[in-house]
Design goal:
The protein is α+β, with helices and mostly antiparallel strands. It contains eleven helices and 16 strands. The longest helix has 21 residues.
Length: 337
């Protein structure tokens, strides 16, 4: 599917030796030539593959108000990006960890949806060989590792006033503070809690199976069917649809899963993005802490893995061969069985 760029602007924020930021502004929009289209297509692809949080603008968001005026024709896109860059400069000045970067604004269309993507990108150095086989240093935008990015679904924002999911953003690889300053720049707060939706789904599935008095194997089979559907949606980038999931699953008793969850008061959206880490709990028990990491398939509990709740002790029958070899070497024993 093609991505159609409407408007794109680049700005830079440069940090000097006195830890102050200055703006480098371009007085025109970028022309949508082949290079620009390829770069934006790659940024869209990278962003789409990453796990995102959902948000919404605060009522007093200056950026949202400026964007509304721009959309109504009361201001041009270039002026909007200029004002927004000044706002980000003021936010960055509050944080000692902030570094120089390129601020990108792109309004584009993809699959009949209009978006505004805002990204603060770092630059990287790399080596280049020219036609004379000389080496030189070149700079490029580090798109593959972009983690300070937000995207506004303009179509959703302007047509669904009650939406809490028109704004998505990355929480960043280097700590919560990174997304804090970007959310302050946007004047936005988190909206739809994706992890909470997925946890709610898992709880509804477990309670549904318990209400139907399924035995252990039947419950595991049911959870596997739920996981298969959800994982397929994750792979295709589509959301989990509660109605569609309920139609695929066997009905237990007189109600399907969606009817059961509605009656029991689970606060689940009709559709929501899957969270890979949470959904993995349908198949595995995973936990870490205090230097210990434990990960095993659900069906092993009660068979090869036993848990004593009174003493909080796990007993594992039959360790993996590679772990067993390491344990024997550590204890000074023979590695042969």
């Amino acid at each position: 599917m093609s991505l159609n760029i409407d408007q794109m602007a680049l700005r830079q924020l440069i940090k000097d030796d006195n830890q102050k930021f200055s703006m480098v502004l371009r007085d025109s929009l970028l022309s949508t030539d082949t290079v620009v289209k390829e770069m934006m297509t790659e940024l869209h692809r990278v962003y789409s593959t990453k796990s995102k949080a959902y948000g919404q603008f605060d009522e007093q968001s200056e950026l949202a108000n400026a964007l509304k005026l721009s959309r109504k024709g009361d201001g041009d896109f270039l002026s909007f990006t200029h004002t927004a860059t000044g706002r980000l400069r003021d936010e960055l000045a509050k944080y000692s960890f902030a570094e120089s970067g390129t601020l990108l604004f792109c309004q584009y269309r993809y699959l009949a949806v209009e978006y505004l993507l805002i990204a603060f990108l770092n630059s990287c150095n790399s080596m280049r060989v020219d036609e004379q086989l000389d080496l030189s240093i070149t700079h490029h935008l580090d798109i593959n590792h972009a983690d300070i990015v937000a995207r506004i679904d303009l179509t959703e924002w302007e047509t669904n006033l009650q939406s809490k999911r028109y704004l998505t953003f990355l929480k960043g690889r280097v700590g919560r503070k990174i997304s804090d300053f970007f959310m302050d720049f946007l004047a936005a707060t988190e909206g739809l809690d994706t992890k909470a939706q997925n946890r709610g789904l898992l709880q509804a599935v477990d309670d549904y199976c318990a209400d139907a008095q399924l035995d252990k194997k039947e419950q595991q089979s049911y959870r596997q069917q739920v996981y298969s559907y959800c994982n397929e949606r994750l792979q295709t980038g589509e959301e989990i649809e509660l109605h569609a999931l309920s139609q695929e699953l066997p009905v237990l008793g007189e109600k399907n899963l969606q009817q059961f969850s509605n009656e029991q008061g689970y606060v689940l959206e009709e559709s929501f993005p899957g969270d890979r880490t949470t959904l993995r709990q349908l198949k595995k028990f995973v936990g870490s802490g205090g230097g210990l990491t434990v990960n095993f398939d659900v069906q092993l509990l009660g068979e090869r893995v036993l848990w004593d709740a009174a003493t909080d002790t796990l007993t594992i029958k039959g360790t993996p061969p590679n772990l067993r070899d390491q344990l024997r070497r550590s204890s000074g024993g023979s590695t042969t069985s």
